[in-house]
Write a sequence for this structure.
């Protein structure tokens, strides 16, 4: 899906809720869709403060990110560290996540067999899947090497 179509969808989403398309909301939308990183709300707010453009308050960042999640433009990722991360998902293929429980590194992956198995399990229990999120936690290669080094000392 093209950026302009995603933005029109966001504008329509706001209109349906009788919310204005303010310069601040536009700026948050554009920045969120201008990165392919996973980001926290605080990290995002820091980006807003460092970059040129209309001033955006912390409250506006949090509220607009929540609107983007509500509208299905962003998804939240709970990494188990107590901090929620965001990523834009419109126009991107579904994927799951590997999360390093030591350094927080995130790897995205897609596996057709896992997807088919999840569908089969849902059907077995009479569920119709609407969405799902899978997070696998473990140690990334770098943290595993570091742990082996520390154990050897």
């Amino acid at each position: 899906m093209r950026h302009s179509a995603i933005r029109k969808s966001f504008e329509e989403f706001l209109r349906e809720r009788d919310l204005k398309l303010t310069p601040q909301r536009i700026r948050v939308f554009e920045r969120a869709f201008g990165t392919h990183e996973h980001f926290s709300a605080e990290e995002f707010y820091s980006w807003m403060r460092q970059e040129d453009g209309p001033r955006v308050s912390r409250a506006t960042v949090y509220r607009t990110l929540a609107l983007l999640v509500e509208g299905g433009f962003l998804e939240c990722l709970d990494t188990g560290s107590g901090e929620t991360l965001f990523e834009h998902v419109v126009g991107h293929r579904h994927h799951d996540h590997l999360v390093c429980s030591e350094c927080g590194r995130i790897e995205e992956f897609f596996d057709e067999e896992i997807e088919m198995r999840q569908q089969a399990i849902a059907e077995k229990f009479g569920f119709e899947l609407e969405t799902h999120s899978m997070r696998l936690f473990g140690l990334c290669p770098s943290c595993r090497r570091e742990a082996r080094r520390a154990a050897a000392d």
Notes: The CA atoms of residues 20 and 106 lie 35 Å apart. The first strand starts at residue 39 and ends at 40. The mean pLDDT is 92. The beta strands are 39-40, 74-78, 84-88, 96-100, 106-109, 135-138.
